[in-house]
Amino acid sequence: MKKIGILFGQERSFPNALVERINAKNVKGIQAEPATIDKVIQAAPADYAVLIDRISQDVPFYRAALKNAAISGTAVINNPFWWSADEKFFNNALAEKIGVPVPKTVLLPSKEQPDDTTAESFSNLAFPLDWEGIFSYVGFPAFMKPYAGGGWKNVYKLDSADDFFRAYSETGQLVMMLQEAIDFESYFRCYCIGGKYVRIMHYEPRNPHHLRYAAQHNVSAEMMKTLEEYVLRLNQALGYDFNTVELAIRDGIPYAIDFCNPAPDADLNSVGKDNFEWVVETMATYAIERAQAHKDGKDNLTWGSFIRNAAAGQ
């Protein structure tokens, strides 16, 4: 029996529906359940061919347990090693390298020194930074946000250098990035599962949360195809099995705004019935595919083309 476990926290609608859908398909030798962890012994295999991770970003114990399971052959969705290493600023740099437009973005050191460091720890950092060059490159208006993380935490909309310095003074030890604001005509949020299944959802981030998926943008079939291509290109390079990509269209160019969401919102009450049905059905299909392809004791993780090409010396 190949078991598929779903590891989750407070969310209920998606994990429960996913377990039910997988089991309802009655695929011989496949069974899904909420994952149970009663002990984690080094290098000991887990009881699951596949584990779908919805919570380890908030629970470090789970992230370590998933890495331990992966090293003994469990296919973890998403790859916990890559998820631990990934962050938004790197993603933007990678997007540029693979030909996906992104806003102009600059990395910023933390305003306050990290614990257990002194001024001497920053001997290689110019002081002051080239603020004029940074502001000239990014322009205003701009957004300042953490270089890693999500949920719109610690995000600032800035209209001037004065706004920037006021906001920057509040960021403490957070490493931030300053990013060009894209004044968009239309906006889309896109699920990507398995690096091959894409659902493009009309989205309006300026609406109240419960109305964001109620948008309807008038774009061409050719543009929709470009959006799908960019979503696939990004996820295949990053190696995410389950992710969302947000794209904003300005002057006919789709910019990837946010594409590091490896535990994306899939709650029925926020994404709506049709999107919920798609993500449950598609993830059920993909999880079964991964369970059927599982090989005991082998590396069953997904590694993106960036890592694969580096390992191959390309």
UniProtKB/TrEMBL annotation:
All residue ranges annotated as the ATP-grasp domain in the record: 92-289
GO molecular function: ATP binding; metal ion binding; ribosomal S6-glutamic acid ligase activity
GO annotation, biological process: SOS response
UniProt KW keywords: ATP-binding, Nucleotide-binding
Highest classification ranks of the organism: Bacteria, Pseudomonadati, Bacteroidota, Saprospiria, Saprospirales
This protein's name: ATP-grasp domain-containing protein
GO cellular component: cytoplasm
Source species, domain of life: Bacteria
PROSITE patterns: ATP_GRASP
